[in-house]
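Thread title: Can someone regenerate the structure for this chain?

I was given the following input by a collaborator and told the matching structure tokens would be attached. They weren't. Posting the sequence so someone can regenerate them.
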Amino acid sequence: MTTFKQLGLSDNVLKALSELGFESPTEIQQQAIPQLLIGEKDFIGLAQTGTGKTAAFGLPLLERIDTSNKSTQALVLAPTRELGQQIAEQLEKFSKHLSKVNVLAVYGGAAISNQMRALRNPQHVIIATPGRLIDLIERKAVKLEQLRYLVLDEADEMLNMGFKDELDKILSYTPADKLTWLFSATMPAEIKRIVKKYMDDPIEAKVSTKNEVNENIEHQYVVVKQNDKEEALTRFLDLNPNMRGLVFCRTKRDTQQLAEVLLNKNYKADALHGDLSQMQRDRVMRRFKAHDLHVLIATDVAARGIDVNDLTHVFHYTLPDDNSYYTHRSGRTARAGKKGISIAFINSREGHKIDRLAKQLGITISRAMIPSNDDIHNIRFDNWCHLIIETETKGKIDPKLIARVNEIFGDLTKEQLIEKMVVDELTKLNLGAARDLNVSQSKSRERDDRPSGRRDERRGERRGERRDDRRSDSRRSDRGDRDSAPRERREREVVGERRERRSEGGERKERKPRSANEKPRFFINLGERDKVSKHDLMDFVCRISGIQRSSMGEVNIQKSFSFFEVDPTVEKKITNKFNNITLEDGRELRVNRDN
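Best answer:
Regenerated them for you:
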């Protein structure tokens, strides 16, 4: 077995690794560290999340820093502030016994004035998100003239998030003779373009990660109705009281809403998404790392950079559209040689997605059953009993109040009082009948294969789900009222809004023939009422169609619909890619050319 010492690391770094509990290097570390320690060539490392890429580039980077030189010698670019913070924390730990190496993370969402102040002091290594780094460069706060090492971490994710232009701009500020180390999970065309343009005959290390990432993860799925997902999740939480889990939702709104539901049911949960301030995000992560939270609800982007070694479960509350996201999500558990469970929540029409996912990733995804009502009845009730027993009372109750309660309950025996308390708690637990949340897979697949009558059946099911949604969450009543309206009324709203815009002198007065430089424009029936931002809409279109954000043009959000432009070269990729998509409120998604 290869050891870190055999890779050529110094005694001071080895001491820090030992204190951190690092025992043996991963495959990407074995391939990267010896080359990056002494090599003078550019380097490409292809490996999935969870394979130890931070140590693969971070350890040799720290060894090569000349602390007598006060200039910025290394720049690490990361797609998200969470990942940037995580890299900075790891480098600080790795360099504990080295001569003082100054490391600074800069990112959006934090006061730029504080970061500029910190940059007045010598910083050997800067970890940055692309947008914030450009702001600092333009303000003359960062100088890269003496940069010796540039690390692009999660390069494919940076391009997926639309940072192509920013990367080109940043690279133009760096010296030509620097060494560039690029780490990525995949090698799309845009990464190859960067390699060809900015790297000189790089060495490539490719790790076959399927077995390594998944070998300690048990992949499962459950079939459950949309309205029952919250209850299904709480049953898994009850069945595993020592769980440390991540729950992935598709949108920021879903993330926050689910976290609030769990909090209202007294589960130790919180949300992590892009709408939180940096202070709020830091507080959530501190609580999660301190085991004050049992479960964290997150979006895919916000979860980048979360590095916790003792996660037991990952829940896919909604399936991702991209296989790589499933791999990234699942890879958050089963780290440091531990076991983990990945559970996907699917509806009765998504069985084929699980089959395809398993085949493409070369893994086995077995069906699991949602814990029954009987399974958790005693657990929840026992938890309530133990909570009463453990409640401190000394000095917390006014003796007069105790006397008043004794007077009121004086005619009840101990057994009668306990019976009434139990009935009251059972009502609060709302366990109801022993309802099975598991959807019959055989029946659901028969229904999916049925050539006729399927649409009416599903439409009825969706109407029922919408009624349940409105009863369960009064905050969504305004949306529910809209969704329950007939389709003709929604169409009239759209036509009416278009007429309003024409009467106000909007851009829809009279459509002229498209010029050679004009971008094709598309209509989509999502708008402000759906709480969709331009950023959300661009992410959604790119994810479904497979185009890059750089291929999108102007986005115009209206009340109940929106328009977006794309480059003519990718116009055909939009056509027919959005068919047969049903929104969570039951509407069919419509995307078509705006002629």
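The chain has five domains: 5-208, 211-372, 374-429, 450-483, 493-593.
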